[in-house]
Design a protein that fits this description.
This is Flagellin N-methylase. By secondary structure, the chain is α+β, with helices and mostly antiparallel strands. It has helices at 24-29, 63-76, 117-121, 133-142, 172-205, 208-211, 225-232, 236-263, 269-290, 308-314, and strands spanning 5-7, 35-43, 51-54, 57-60, 78-80, 82-91, 152-154, 161-165, 168-169, 219-222. It has a domain at 5-224. It binds iron/sulfur cluster (2 copies). Residues 9-15, 122-123, 146, 149, 151 line the site of one iron/sulfur cluster.
Amino acid sequence: MVNAFSFACTACGKCCNSPPAMSLPELFRHRDRFIGCLAIGRVPRRRIGERVRVGRHEAVLDEADIAAFESIADTLLHRAGDTFSIMTQGYDYPSLARCPALADDGRCAIHLNGKPVTCEVVPLDPLVPDTLQHLVLAGRNQSASYLGADCIQEGERADAALMTAEGEIKDANARNALARRRRALEKEREVWGRAVFESLRKDLFDSPAALARIPPGGFLTISIVPALLAVASTSARCRQLCLDYIDSQLALIDRSIKQALLRRRLDDRPVTQELRGFAHAYQRAQTLLGTPLPAMEVESGTPSSLSPIEAYLSGADR
Ligand code: SF4
Ligand code: SF4
């Protein structure tokens, strides 16, 4: 079989070495465990005829590949000259080298209780067309996060699920997880992504000097507050959900910084500074959202009367 890769996760926890990307409702659900942030990345534009090589695996991109990349960009990403991803994700001290949900026995503490969809998608990448996911697997196989785990194997294996072959995702669970993550990203773009992109356009996306802050192949992390302000503006109930979230986040940041100060690590200092910046942004948002807006009436009612965005944020539309 061409480009066949098999996958069997033993839940060793090796790739759980940082907080994952999470949708806003997932962050709301796990507000006492994950500090939320916005991660902004630049997504390279692909061209017909471009060679993409990972180890001994190679693809020359054709018209269909480019159309698939364009379709992903049109539905999940943002364009301002270049293409950008804006996603919410968990944030923590890199020195800890672990996801806050990774239990001491190496298992995921929220596996049965709202594990982020991103973690179900692992080791695939929702921003890459299905026809090229074998290159994603080849790349993961070479990365430090998976070193020694042996969960990704080339070819068909009796003791593992066939993940990719002949330009398709063969495993039904993986296909399902990819579809759910892509749907979630599309929804995030609709609910707050476009508004945040526009609010950052002048200061970030239209300024080459500001854009230089996005590390090549990496992410610029900023406070999640612009996303909260976008959803809070839709109704009084959304505003209250955001205020409740901010309360929990301020307490979590406080705990997290106190633990870092006890560790006394030099490399924690810039992260502590960034977390203090997040806390200040939350406090400013608290003041802003705590002031009642005359046009925004406080609704009452049962969960059945939730607006689509309220239902989305509270997870009632799961
Ligand atoms: S490194 Fe592989 S085996 Fe270990 S948790 Fe991650 S996907 Fe599973
Ligand atoms: S949420 Fe669970 S599966 Fe996902 S990175 Fe954290 S520990 Fe791993």
